[in-house]
Design goal:
The structure is a single chain. With about 450 residues, this protein is an alpha/beta fold. The chain folds into 4 domains: about 120 residues, Rossmann fold, CATH 3.40.50.720; about 80 residues, Regulator of K+ conductance, C-terminal domain (Alpha-Beta Plaits); about 120 residues, Rossmann fold (3-Layer(aba) Sandwich); about 90 residues, Regulator of K+ conductance, C-terminal domain (Alpha-Beta Plaits), CATH 3.30.70. It has 14 helices and 22 strands. It is globular.
Length: about 450
């Protein structure tokens, strides 16, 4: 059951309905419910997720999971509180953005609100941006196994040393990384050894954290160390970024039109330079030497302004841009107009929620660009079908590949003769349509997690 039919709720519902799950969506906005009915094969109810009568009518007592993902923290929390009393066995996930609530973690426990999992999209997005800044040249960086393994997306440019090469030719990198997915013309491919990497491909690799410098240099030679950053937008995301960078040696400036917010920031930040001004002002950006910046990060509350600011920054000489854009349908389109990297709080929320929906012992899930494929971190269970036999003999669905095996402190880039042991952590790439088959492989035969 999903409360909230906005971007997050719609995309979660779409994802699950395409996989044959029984989904119910509740929203009080009639046009949103109409959109759900016209586009998705799910049940849709018009009304509030805070109505006990409607929750009962929609089938709360038979539901396995409640995702409360409206734009209102209060509605999300009350929905979970009601669900706790109407169905004590279901898992309850709430999207919460207010920092004050997040600081009072005891409120969410079973004795009060009864929320099982809290999703804070903004903090997840800030972490995504910081990860991107650690790997200059990457379009996406996602941590697995507490940061010991990284999923990195790189755009392959003309002249790249790996453009035009078959995967079989990367013999020197076999112990350091595995190419798990390739996005070519908005189509996701799980590649085989004889496949060739082409210019303009978006290539996803899994690599050990301690091999990152070697991998980055190989994939994108010539990238320099991060020194200068300009942030435009001092809302919750921009402020959190500035606070994180304030503790580093990176030369950072933050620009915002709100003079009161700039005054508050200037009082709290020690190293970051706070500028009261308009980030769409070309003269201001030139005065602040945007041409010397390694990253220009546009995270205002206005998506169109963010796109314009990033394009303006690129035109003035910024090496790379990161653009906040929440309309998920726009994300595949923006690279065509010169936007380097997009981050989205809504995509961050979708990622976080998916891990609670997947069957098997799933630790985290990361939808890839265009959300037609996923990178999944899962624990190998003793009674699943994939343990204690050679990988070459596992009946893995076509369209899925194991990119890494983590066993204790050891990180293994697997081959056909590798063997998965119980409790190993697996990093898996999978096309969306094969996820149900993959779940079946990962699931304990007599019990579902």
């Amino acid at each position: 059951m999903i409360v909230g039919a906005g971007e997050v709720g719609f995309n979660i519902a779409k994802r699950l309905s395409e996989e044959g799950k029984d989904v119910v969506v509740i929203d009080r906005d009639a046009p949103q419910i109409k959109k759900i009915n016209e586009n998705l094969d799910v049940q849709a109810f018009l009304g509030s997720g805070t109505s006990p009568r409607l929750l009962k009518e929609a089938g709360i007592k038979e539901a396995d999971l409640l995702v409360a993902a409206t734009d209102s923290d209060e509605v999300n929390l009350i929905s979970c509180l009601l669900a706790r009393n109407l169905n004590q066995y279901m898992l309850k996930v709430a999207r919460v953005r207010n920092r004050e609530y997040l600081e009072e973690t005891e409120l969410f426990g079973q004795d009060l609100l009864g929320v099982d999992r809290i999703i804070n999209p903004e903090s997840l997005m800030v972490k995504s941006i910081l990860n991107l800044m650690e790997v200059p040249g990457a379009s996406e960086v996602i941590d697995f196994v507490e940061g010991r393994v990284k999923l990195i997306g790189f755009r392959i440019h003309k002249g790249s040393p790996i453009a035009g090469r078959q995967l079989l030719s990367f013999t020197k990198l076999q112990e350091k990384l595995l190419v798990g997915a390739v996005v070519r013309k908005n189509q996701v491919v799980i590649p085989q050894g004889r496949d060739t990497i082409e210019a303009d491909d978006l290539v996803y690799v899994v690599a050990k954290n301690d091999e990152m410098e070697y991998v980055r240099t190989f994939l994108n030679p010539g990238e320099e160390t991060l020194k200068r950053v300009i942030i435009v937008g001092a809302g919750q995301t921009g402020t959190s970024l500035a606070e994180a960078l304030d503790q580093t040696r990176i030369n950072t400036k933050i620009i915002d039109k709100d003079s009161d917010q700039c005054t508050r920031l200037a009082e709290n930040l020690e190293q970051v330079i706070v500028i009261n001004g308009d980030g769409t002002d070309k003269n201001l950006l030139q005065e602040e030497n945007v041409k010397d910046s390694d990253f220009m990060i546009a995270v205002t509350g206005d998506e169109e302004s963010n796109v314009f600011i990033s394009l303006l920054g690129k035109g003035l000489g910024a090496k790379r841009t990161i653009t906040r854009l929440n309309k998920l349908s726009y994300i595949p389109l923006v690279s065509a107009i010169g936007i380097d990297t997009v981050v989205s709080s809504r995509l961050s929320a979708v990622r976080a929620i998916l891990q609670y929906i997947r069957r098997g012992k799933i630790i985290s899930v990361a939808p890839l660009k265009g959300v037609h494929a996923e990178a999944i971190e899962a624990e190998a269970l003793e009674t699943s079908e994939i343990v204690n036999i050679h990988l070459s003999k596992v009946k893995f669905p076509k369209g899925a590949i194991i990119a890494a095996i983590v066993r204790g402190e050891e990180i293994i880039i697997p081959h056909g003769d590798s063997i998965i042991r119980p409790k190993d952590h697996l990093i898996i790439f999978a096309l969306q349509q094969v996820v149900p088959k993959l779940e079946k492989l990962l699931t304990v035969k007599l019990d579902y997690f």
